Protein: VWA domain-containing protein
Amino acid sequence: MNLKLITACLLGFSCYANGSERNDIPDCYQHANVEEFRQPGSGRQLTVIVDQTVLMPESIQRAAWGQIDRFVASGDEVKLYSFSAFLPSQFMQLQFSGELNSPLPEAVRDDVGMQSLRAFDACVSEQRAFFQKRFGREFVAVLRAASEDIPRSEIFHSLRDIGSDLKSSPARERVILLMSDMLENSDFGSFYANRRIRDLNPQAELDKVASVQLFADLDGARVYVAGAGLITKDVNQAYRSGRTIELLEAFWHGYFNGSNAELVAFGAPSLNVDIK
Structure:
């Protein structure tokens, strides 16, 4: 792989695979000058979303990285978003966007020049390590930038905006890993009362979301949540009853159903199933 290309990407310059579409992973077809043999991607998209109003325990951070690393395969598209509240330095941001290349199938390898084929194979063999390093760096930076001192948490608005953004990708299979306490605290309303997590009325809250058009369109995504119900320093008691969490989960099942998505697993706080 071209050392100058790697260095440029590591320094934060995007590498572009097709037209002006952002790709933070060096593109091996472009690098090896074999664009005419380009294979389609896998059609899978993993979107990792980090709520920066929550300090995630190290165990959850490590488990999430393990989940991501096991899931991502050749041809997959991966995005990383962060959000908190609509503050000058804390708005929703796309921190990483990249796509790993699909390898050349045997049926076309004989049609590729030997030098180009060697360059392509070498690039592909290094591409996953590059992804791990670059995405891992951004993922750690986003988690370390989290703060409990941010007074608001705009989960609904952020998911709606991210859903709109994801539509730019033609992915057929979308998976979302959402790392958040899932406790909205905004002008829309708060899932807290008297500095405690309140017991929600899921249907009443869903009706409120619908009335102000805060459902997202997540295009059939499967959603996995890690960190739900985590207690911050501003909450009076660290104890959360099972009933409180059940009601919170019921609300989010309804929310994602209304947002053209499926809540597959609700880690409260640990996500104990593999994302698939």
